[in-house]
Amino acid sequence: MSNEHAAVGTEDLLVDRDDGVLTVTFNRPEARNAMTWEMYQGLAEACDAVDADPAVRVMVLRGAGGRAFVAGTDIAQFTEFDGPAGVAYERRISEVLACLRAVDVPVIAAIDGYCVGGGLGIAACADLRLASPGSRFGVPIARTLGNCLSGDTLGLLIALLGRGRVVDMLLRARFIDADEALTAGFLGTVTDDVDATAAEWAATLKGHAPLTIWSVKEIVRRLSDLGGGIDDADVVERIYGSEDFHEAVRAFIAKEDYEWTGR
């Protein structure tokens, strides 16, 4: 991999171009690569960089440190949230994920470790996903923060993992392992060497017809969009403006228990 980071990269989100492959590395291993607002913005800019460079044939997403792909959004950023801020946040995340889904070239998510919350949403936007045997997937917000997913993210997860499994994962705050994710069709393979397998897949994709690949991505995206979005602003605003959410964020940061009130 090249050591020269593209201009869109930052210390927390590395962007490398090498031999037709643009690799985005989520680089906060001390925080299990939890996403900051700047990292989300950097991911959107990386997507723009891919589409602006005809030499890029494949995009790869990976997490640094071997413990996580992305373990959600940095919780410290939620401390001053209210309902309208929650709506704006979910809309912005939906916009970033839409950028990722719309990238012209195939996107590979190389998952090694926890793939949680927003990280699961990012992985779901990739075209191909592979993971190490110890990887875990989930959105345990019913147990941790008491927030919610947007309709866009929830719909994408349902399409890839199935309605029953996604509802079960959310309501029981349950993680699934790599084998279950493979059985569900979310993963293409489980491998001991995630980076090597991702490189093999990228090399294969570079040898395939670019317009055929683009057509598959574009038609799948259009089929996915046929159902249209839903108006979920009232739900999101209620959740992010709730006492439960604010107190759960405080308790999570303080490493304290919190008893849900439903308010």
Give a structural overview:
- By secondary structure, the protein is α/β, with parallel strands linked by helices.
- The protein has one domain: 2-enoyl-CoA Hydratase, Chain A, domain 1 (Alpha-Beta Complex).
- Helices cover 45% and strands 16% of the residues.
- It contains ten helices and ten strands.
- It has helices at residues 37-52, 83-102, 118-125, 151-161, 163-171, 178-183, 194-206, 210-225, 233-240, 243-254; strands at 13-18, 21-26, 58-63, 68-71, 107-111, 114-116, 128-131, 136-138, 176-177, 189-190.
- Strands 1-2-3-5-7-10 form a six-stranded mixed β-sheet, with helices on both faces. Strands 4-6-8-9 form a four-stranded mixed β-sheet.
- Helix 1 links the parallel strand 2 (21-26) and strand 3 (58-63).
- Helix 1 (37-52) runs parallel beside helix 2, helix 3 packs across helix 4 and helix 4 packs across helix 5 (163-171).
- The N and C termini lie far apart (50 Å).
- 40% of the residues are buried.
- Residues 1-7 have low confidence and may be disordered.
